[in-house]
Design goal:
Oligomer: single chain
Radius of gyration: 30 Å
Helix content: 25-40%
Shape: globular
Number of strands: 37
Strand order of the largest sheet: 18-19-22-23-24-27-28-29
Largest sheet: 8 strands, parallel, barrel
Structural class: alpha/beta
Strand content: 15-25%
Mean pLDDT: 94
């Protein structure tokens, strides 16, 4: 008996000692490595990777009592049985790795390798991120670990092919002298240069029609930023004067601009047109003025008559997945308004974040705007996109206050940019759902059951099973709940109030409608009850129509129309034995505005189907307009690629009325053509964690959208002669690249504080034992080194083919000396990119 008691005592002390040892392990002593080993593993179109845990401390890493958390693309283990560490999906892109019973811990310097499969990872930005460890003895204490991302895959051949392809494409670009380039961008409808010169100086006065008071104030503010003087108001002067004049023109956005030796006249019928005339005048200013204030400038004589091709010219900024604040948004508005884009579509919520303050619903930002380690998501959401364990540490957390949004609206309104708020529903709504869950729990505990249920967004008894494209199993609002429409009404009313206070136009609210997965609502008691009491809802699939019918009713009662993604004009129907989304004509007469993104097979003609049926369509084609897609396939080039690759040429060559599609697809009718109201380029933010990354993916791509949405239909888009089309397009493409390389990008080095646009890598090819290099942007410099080091702005300037030295490196630089990525050319093989 004594021996048994002694054994039990020793066992207890051993466990206590081990527990203390486990609790005292410093997680900074754990190193995590991710290495991609093989793409298209066993022809599965998946990537085989190794997740390696290494104990770099002198302490023993425990065999149990810990969990490693991280964000990654969809993963599965290569050894489902018998592995000592198990990797499991929690939700979305959030995973955990936990030890199984057979795991023995790690001594100092020891490692364990966990083999995993995932979707094909072809870029560095695909790699998992945000690794941290939590010990069960300290469940609230999350500690980031040392992490490195590696690849065993040789990308040198890939980079060689890309460099050679770039060279061939660049070789077709003509270098056009600056003096022969169009003086205004985007290209006006009609323009004529004269030999006059207007000298703008401190004696210049401005005469303003009373209708254009705000535009005159804007022009004065611009002068104050750019000159050492501020022009005085004029009355009847005939010399050295700028006249803002009321004219009768066909549209409110049309304008006329005339520059003579004596005067500058900007005329328009609407304030919008007058503003665009001011932007064209600014486009005539010398580039240097944006970096150094001037005492006087000479403006070349010109006569312009201009109006936009499309009324809706939009940039969509996703601040939900990763947050960008007021400062970045104001900077974007300043830039897009200069290029005559007139819509900023703000994506304000998604599964991973709610980004705007709504008075009366503090939980939306108290909970839904924050990501970090959590035990129950009552205070913040789980990490996504590598945001890690710490709340408010990075772009995973953040929101716009009401005051921020008010300032954004006021700033945009002065610049004639309409801000369209998007509240993504009923899918992509997890941040809202979890926030209202937290509100429910809080009020329920206080005894306020009615208040708790007022804005509830999910059926608490719903047993439906689904998984969204992004991996979520709880991200869809339940349209059968009356509380959902109280929530929608609250959002609409708060938006109306803040827009009214700002004096900003609010014509529509975008309520999403994108990517609701199969399986939702099928086991919801609330939906089952709806099917019993409402004869118009004949199936679970019809809950979709029921939802947008109600949202439309709410908006129409407030004199607003509904905007959404293409699904607002679609319904589920059996086609060839399978459920598919097909055209739903029921809302075609309701002035729904649909952003049609899906032009992938078999939906190449979807935009035309909706437009022909009567929906107002904004072409948002993924293959041409999704500027978050990577510029090319290069392993080091950041961006998504599920919809292909998008360089600036994809936006420039976009032909809205003649989409690339098979011959058996629906043709755009004349009625349908009138329903194509504009173009939009979205910038989704899954990989965008800094302002620099946003600007890199945004520019120069967005300049292609500016040209295509404002300027008249180009000749090459209407010609039928193949040879003429090719030559016409090639010159137009060269002219466009010369304009942006020699005028607009140098301007953007300083405009609105400067933008860190992408500088392309050079094209490279070997011919007759020498290396030839060229660049997409005429006038940008190529510099190189012969010792393998990264070229700097003082390195050798490339002016002629280089003999194949042992270790060549090339890099492109802009006029201000900022360089792009370096590409090495080693013994006839491109070795890699820095």
């Amino acid at each position: 008996m004594k021996k048994s008691l002694l054994f039990i005592l020793v066992l207890i002390l051993t466990k206590v000692s081990y527990s203390q040892k486990r609790s005292s392990f410093d997680a900074r002593g754990l190193k995590v490595s991710w290495e991609t080993v093989e793409n298209n593993y066993k022809e599965t179109k998946e990537t085989y990777s190794k997740l390696t845990l290494t104990n770099i401390s002198k302490e023993f890493f425990p065999a149990s009592g810990w969990t490693l958390y991280f964000n990654a693309p969809n993963l599965k283990s290569l050894n489902e049985t018998g592995g000592s560490v198990k990797v499991e999906l929690i939700n979305g892109d959030f995973f955990k790795a936990r030890p199984e019973r057979i795991f023995k811990g790690l001594g100092s310097g020891k490692s364990i390798v966990i083999p995993l499969l995932s979707r094909d990872l072809i870029k560095r930005t695909d790699f998992p991120r945000g690794f941290y460890v939590v010990f069960s003895s300290r469940p609230s204490n999350a500690i980031p670990v040392i992490y490195e991302a590696l690849t065993a895959i040789d990308y040198s051949r890939q980079q060689q092919l890309i460099a050679e392809k770039n060279y061939q494409e660049n070789d077709e670009i003509e270098d056009i002298p600056l003096s022969l380039l169009p003086p205004i961008f985007p290209s006006p409808s009609s323009i004529k240069n004269t030999k006059d010169i207007f000298n703008l100086n401190k004696l210049t006065k401005i005469i303003t029609d009373p209708a254009f008071g705000p535009e005159a104030a804007y022009l004065n503010d611009e002068f104050e930023k750019l000159f050492t003087f501020k022009p005085l108001p004029g009355t009847t002067e005939k010399q050295n004067v700028i006249i803002l004049q009321k004219l009768s023109l066909p549209s409110k956005e049309a304008y006329k601009l005339q520059v003579t030796s004596n005067e500058i006249i900007i005329g328009a019928s609407g304030k919008e047109g007058l503003f665009y005339g001011i932007q064209s005048l600014k486009n005539l200013f010398p580039i240097s003025i944006w970096s150094t204030k001037q005492d006087a400038i000479a403006i070349p004589g010109i006569s312009v008559s201009d109006a936009p091709r499309f009324p809706h010219r939009a940039f969509m900024m996703d601040i939900a997945r990763n947050f960008q604040g007021k400062k970045a948004i104001l900077k974007v508005i300043e830039m897009i308004s200069f290029y005559k884009l007139n819509v900023l579509h703000l994506h304000l919520n998604d599964d991973e974040g709610w980004r705007i303050e709504i008075p009366g619903l503090p939980e939306l930002t108290d909970v839904g705007s924050k990501r970090g380690h959590t035990l129950n998501e009552q205070e913040n959401l789980i990490p996504s996109y590598g945001s890690g364990p710490t709340v408010n540490a990075n772009s995973g957390s953040g929101f716009l206050t009401r005051a921020d949004y008010l300032e954004i609206l006021e700033y945009a309104t002065i610049r004639h940019v309409e801000v369209i708020p998007e509240f993504e529903t009923p899918g992509h709504a997890r941040a809202a759902i979890k926030s209202m869950d937290a509100r429910y729990e809080k009020l329920l505990k206080s005894g306020d059951k009615t208040g708790a249920e007022q804005y509830l967004l999910r059926d608490l008894n719903d047993a439906s099973v689904y998984r969204s494209v992004q991996g979520w199993n709880d991200n869809v609002i339940n349209p059968a709940l009356p509380s959902v429409y109280k929530f929608i009404e609250k959002l609409a009313d708060e938006m109306i109030a803040v827009y009214k206070e700002a004096g900003a136009p609010l014509n529509t609210i975008h309520f999403g409608g994108d990517e609701v997965p199969a399986g939702v609502w099928e086991k919801s008691p609330a939906v089952a009850n709806l099917l019993k009491i409402d004869a118009s809802v004949t199936s679970v699939d019809e809950v979709w129509n029921y939802y947008f019918k109600n949202v439309n009713r709410i908006l129409k009662a407030r004199n607003l129309f509904l905007s959404g993604w293409e699904e607002i004009g679609l319904k589920k129907e059996m086609v060839n034995g399978q459920k598919q989304m097909v055209l739903d004509p029921r809302f075609a007469g309701e002035n729904f505005h649909a952003n049609v993104w899906n032009n992938l097979n078999p939906n190449e003609d979807l935009a035309y189907k909706l437009a022909n049926a009567g929906y107002k369509v904004i072409l948002t084609n993924v293959t041409n307009m999704y500027i978050d897609l990577a510029y090319n396939k290069n392993f080091e080039e950041p961006g998504q690629y599920w919809g292909g690759f998008v360089d600036v040429d994809k936006l420039f060559r976009f032909n809205p009325f003649k989409l690339d599609q098979p011959a058996n697809k629906e043709v755009l009718t004349e009625k349908g053509k009138r329903n194509i109201i504009g173009l939009q380029a979205p910038l989704w933010s899954e990989i965008i964690t800094t302002e620099g990354q946003l600007e890199y993916l945004m520019l120069p791509k967005l300049l292609g959208l500016a040209e295509r949405s404002w300027s008249p239909t180009p000749d090459w888009a209407t010609q039928t002669d193949v040879k003429k089309v090719s030559s016409s397009y090639q010159y137009a493409w060269s002219e466009f690249l010369n304009v942006i390389a020699k005028k607009e990008l140098p301007r953007l080095d300083s405009y609105a504080g400067g933008f860190r646009y992408r500088i392309p890598m050079p094209g490279l090819i070997m011919e007759e034992g020498k290396v030839l290099a060229n660049v997409q942007l005429p006038g940008f410099e190529i510099r190189y080194t012969t010792d393998g080091t990264e070229p700097g702005k003082s390195s050798k300037l490339y002016v002629e083919p280089v003999a194949d030295a042992k270790n060549l490196s090339f890099r492109v630089f802009n006029a201000s000396g900022r360089g792009g990525k370096t590409i090495k050319f080693l013994n006839g093989e491109k070795e890699g990119v820095k």
